[in-house]
Design goal:
Number of domains: 1
Largest sheet: none
Structural class: mainly alpha
Order of helices and strands: HH
Radius of gyration: 18 Å
């Protein structure tokens, strides 16, 4: 009895954990797009490098 309830709790944790990861990835995508579009990285070489790195991360 106890092991069954623990197993189902564990499944729920895995599923909600995966959903949380997906949501974080979505937000990171939006964040990267917002930042590179609005130029909040400060422009110039460093700014475009950082924007590129963020969007590359988001595409994985």
């Amino acid at each position: 009895m106890t092991s069954t309830s623990q197993d189902s709790n564990f499944d729920v944790m895995i599923v909600s954990g995966n959903l949380a990861v997906v949501e974080v990835l979505r937000r990171r995508d939006r964040f990267a797009a917002d930042w590179s579009d609005s130029g909040q990285f400060g422009g110039g070489v460093v700014g475009s490098e950082m924007a590129t790195a963020f969007s590359a991360l988001g595409r994985r």
